[in-house]
C-alpha cells in the first residue's frame, strides 16, 4: 500500500463490460466449445447502451472481451467510431486467481491485439473479469509490463469474485521502472456500516433518488471522482438465463432488469460522462 499515490481525478466515468449473458462467474456456465452455438445478446445490449449515450452526447469506456470482439468486429468499430474508448476485458472471462500467470498474460495480450487490430487504435486500459484480481498491486505492475497505462479492476468492497475493502474509492498511481500506471476503481459509498457499489446489481435495486444521493456523496468524498459500471445484458428486459443458479446468485444476477435501461438513461441525462482515456491525467 505504501507504493501507491492517491491522486485527484475529477470526472464522471461510465464503463461497460461487453460480454455475453452466459459470462457469469461462480456459476455452472456452458463450456467454451459450445459458446458459438448459443443465442447472443452482447451486440443488441451494447447498441442499446450506445443509443442511450448518444441521446445525451456522453462518452464511455467499453471493456470488451476479445471473444466477443472476434465475433462482432463491426460492433467494436462502431463503438470506437462514435468516440468511445475500447479497452480490454481479457479474452475468455476467467477469474485471474483460477488461471496461471502465463495463461493470464496470453489471455490479456490476445485481447489487446485483437481490439487494436479491429480499431486501429492503441488499447491502454484493462479490467479483470469480475474484478477478480486479488493482489491488485501485483496485477497493476504486470499490466504496466504488458504496455497498459491504466487498470480498472479494483472493487473496493467485499464481493464473491475479488474485491478489497481496504482500498479507498479514489484513483491512484504507482511508478515502476520509471513508468507510471493508474488505477481507476469502481466507486463505492461507505458510511462505516454498509457499502454501496455504484453499478451492477446494487444499482439495479437502488431507486434513482437514492442513487443520485449516493453519487453526490461519493463525488464529495473523492474530490469529484465517480465511476459507474454495467453490462449489455442489464439493459435488456428479455434475455436467455442460466437455469441452475443458487437462489441468492439468481437474485443478484437478474433482479431489477425490467426498468434498468430507463435508470441508465436518467443517469446519462443528468451527468456528463467521459471515457477514462479522456480523463485529465491522459490529457497532459
From TrEMBL:
Transmembrane segments: none annotated. PROSITE patterns: NODB. CDD domains: CE4_PuuE_HpPgdA_like_2. Pfam families: DUF3473 (PF11959), Polysacc_deac_1 (PF01522). GO terms for biological process: carbohydrate metabolic process. Residues 32-255 form the NodB homology domain. One of its GO terms (molecular function) is hydrolase activity, acting on carbon-nitrogen (but not peptide) bonds. Gene3D superfamilies: Glycoside hydrolase/deacetylase (3.20.20.370). It comes from the Bacteria. This is Polysaccharide deacetylase.
Amino acid at each position: 500500500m505504501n507504493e501507491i499515490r492517491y491522486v485527484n481525478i475529477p470526472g464522471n466515468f461510465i464503463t461497460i463490460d461487453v460480454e455475453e449473458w452466459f459470462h457469469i462467474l461462480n456459476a455452472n456456465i456452458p463450456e467454451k466449445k459450445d459458446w458459438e452455438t448459443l443465442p447472443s445478446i452482447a451486440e443488441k445490449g451494447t447498441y442499446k447502451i450506445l443509443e442511450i449515450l448518444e441521446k445525451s452526447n456522453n462518452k464511455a469506456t467499453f471493456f470488451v472481451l476479445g471473444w466477443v470482439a472476434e465475433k462482432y468486429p463491426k460492433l467494436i468499430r462502431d463503438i470506437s467510431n462514435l468516440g468511445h474508448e475500447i479497452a480490454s476485458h481479457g479474452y475468455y472471462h476467467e477469474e485471474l486467481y483460477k488461471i496461471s500467470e502465463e495463461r493470464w498474460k496470453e489471455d490479456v495480450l490476445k485481447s489487446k491485439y485483437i481490439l487494436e487490430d479491429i480499431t486501429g487504435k492503441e488499447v491502454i486500459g484493462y479490467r479483470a473479469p469480475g474484478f477478480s484480481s486479488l493482489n491488485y498491486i501485483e496485477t497493476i505492475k504486470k499490466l504496466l509490463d504488458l504496455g497498459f497505462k491504466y487498470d480498472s479492476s479494483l472493487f473496493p468492497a467485499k464481493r464473491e469474485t475479488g474485491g478489497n475493502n481496504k482500498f479507498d474509492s479514489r484513483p491512484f498511481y504507482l511508478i515502476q521502472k520509471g513508468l507510471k500506471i493508474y488505477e481507476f476503481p469502481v466507486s463505492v459509498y461507505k458510511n462505516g456500516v454498509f457499502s454501496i457499489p455504484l453499478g451492477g446489481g446494487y444499482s439495479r435495486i437502488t431507486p434513482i433518488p437514492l442513487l443520485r444521493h449516493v453519487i453526490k456523496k461519493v463525488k464529495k468524498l473523492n474530490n469529484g471522482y465517480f465511476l459507474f459500471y454495467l453490462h449489455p445484458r442489464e439493459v435488456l428486459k428479455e434475455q436467455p438465463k442460466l437455469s441452475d443458479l443458487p437462489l441468492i446468485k439468481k437474485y443478484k444476477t437478474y433482479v431489477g432488469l425490467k426498468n434498468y435501461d430507463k435508470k441508465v438513461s436518467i443517469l446519462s441525462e443528468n451527468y456528463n460522462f467521459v471515457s477514462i482515456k479522456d480523463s485529465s491525467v491522459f490529457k497532459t
